[in-house]
């Protein structure tokens, strides 16, 4: 009697077949033949693909590769302009002057890297799609500044080189940090390191192809007008592909915009949206501040998290102020005309501000009714208008978890989380 055994990978594909005829000495081994094209493809994809990554991984990588190809060509055109601006090929140019330009630009760009990482480092992960796209806007802006360098005198040229260097440093921080967050989203089986390694392989091939195509372009194209036309065209392709790449990502964490979309849909229709549905609705460049609105749309405003001191001491002229307190947070609302502003100070022990953000969305949702007699009427019988009980919130959050939302990751606070400790002597 014979038995068969199979070596399979994470995707369930058979790697090798073993046939045992009564004794182990009679074991027959047959390795599965992999077509050459498939073997080459596997060299650039995570092991076990597609079962070891999220379903949006492939679409993102395809668009990301196309934008990297376009960027490689534009970078060569921009670099040629920089070299011309630094005096390469011009016998009258001073090597010392070119070196000073280079050192000054590098110095200021490195300082900008430190400052930007310090100021915006925490905000990048919750808004990784926004910063991934913003990084390429910075990069393309720097390349267009590079094109100006050959035609400028020394000091204007210095300011342009410095500005381009600062933009590239901002691009580097935003791109690297947002890519790390996106990679963590794509990795399903603890394969983050391998996924990053394979992405580096993909970028190497795409950049090489882009450099080869770009080398042909810079050799054939010398006319300045044609160069500008190509730069505009390729930058348009670059940003379009990058936009499509980040649009295809279906993040599972609830940042301010996604949480607002989900909660508003639940308040409007009692429906719980999935990450796929929210990805089709969210904006990439706008609404990252947590834009809130009333049910009718007549009142608009924002909500933010802050310290207790910020909440108590800020009193802008012309605004009516209202204060609320629950067991988990303090909230202040400033209102004037059709606009409002909310600030939340979370109490000590609160791990995630998701419930507080829901209350902020709910407050804004019922502004039309609450403002008829002043915002104090927001409370009736010691409960706010449109009150949602803790049991209803728990049911909502359970429903969110059931459709694969990640409720543990705090993607709502874009600064260092601060909590309020109260003490009564």
TrEMBL record:
Keywords (A to Z) from UniProt: Membrane, Transmembrane, Transmembrane helix
Chief location bin: membrane
Protein location: Membrane
Keyword Thylakoid assigned: no
Domain Protein root UVB sensitive/RUS: 35-269
Pfam families: UVB_sens_prot (PF04884)
GO CC entries: membrane
Family: Belongs to the RUS1 family.
PANTHER family (UniProt xref): RUS FAMILY MEMBER 1, RUS1 FAMILY PROTEIN C16ORF58
Protein name per its UniProtKB record: Diphosphomevalonate decarboxylase-like protein
Organism of this sequence: Chaetomium thermophilum (strain DSM 1495 / CBS 144.50 / IMI 039719)
């Amino acid at each position: 009697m014979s038995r068969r055994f199979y070596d399979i990978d994470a995707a369930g594909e058979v790697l090798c077949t073993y046939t045992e005829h009564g004794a182990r000495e009679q074991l027959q081994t047959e390795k599965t033949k992999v077509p050459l094209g498939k073997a080459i493809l596997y060299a650039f994809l995570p092991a076990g693909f597609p079962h070891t990554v999220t379903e949006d991984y492939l679409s993102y990588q395809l668009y990301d590769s196309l934008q990297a190809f376009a960027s490689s060509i534009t970078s060569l055109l921009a670099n040629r302009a920089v070299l011309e601006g630094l005096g390469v090929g011009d016998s009258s140019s001073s090597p010392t002057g070119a070196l000073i330009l280079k050192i000054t630009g590098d110095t200021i760009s490195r300082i900008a890297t430190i400052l930007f990482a310090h100021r915006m480092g925490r905000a990048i992960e919750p808004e990784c799609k926004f910063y991934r796209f913003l990084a390429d806007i910075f990069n393309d802006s720097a390349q267009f500044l590079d094109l100006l360098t050959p035609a400028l005198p020394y000091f204007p040229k210095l300011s342009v080189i410095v500005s381009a260097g600062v933009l590239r440093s901002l691009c580097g921080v935003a791109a690297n940090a947002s890519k790390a967050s996106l990679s963590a989203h794509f990795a399903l089986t603890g394969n983050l390191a391998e996924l990053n390694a394979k992405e580096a392989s993909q970028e190497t091939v795409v950049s090489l192809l882009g450099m080869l195509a770009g080398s042909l372009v810079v050799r054939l194209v010398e006319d300045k007008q044609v160069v500008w036309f190509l730069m505009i065209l390729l930058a348009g392709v670059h940003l379009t592909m990058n936009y499509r790449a980040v649009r295809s990502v279906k993040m599972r964490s609830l940042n301010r915009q996604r949480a607002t979309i989900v909660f508003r849909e639940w308040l409007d229709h009692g429906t719980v949206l999935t990450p796929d549905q929210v990805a089709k609705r969210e904006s990439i460049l706008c609404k990252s501040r947590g834009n809130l609105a009333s049910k009718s749309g007549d009142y608009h405003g924002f909500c933010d998290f802050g310290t207790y001191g910020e909440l108590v001491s800020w009193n802008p002229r012309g605004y009516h102020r209202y204060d609320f307190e629950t067991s988990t947070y303090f909230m202040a609302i400033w209102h004037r005309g059709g606009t409002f502003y909310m600030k939340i100070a979370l109490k000590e022990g609160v791990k995630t501000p998701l419930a507080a953000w829901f209350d902020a969305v709910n407050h804004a949702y019922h502004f039309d009714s609450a403002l008829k007699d002043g915002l104090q009427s927001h409370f009736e019988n010691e409960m706010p208008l449109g009150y949602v009980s803790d049991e209803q919130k728990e049911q909502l959050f359970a429903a969110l978890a059931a459709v694969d939302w990640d409720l543990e990751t705090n993607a709502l606070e874009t600064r260092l989380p601060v909590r309020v400790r109260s003490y009564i002597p």
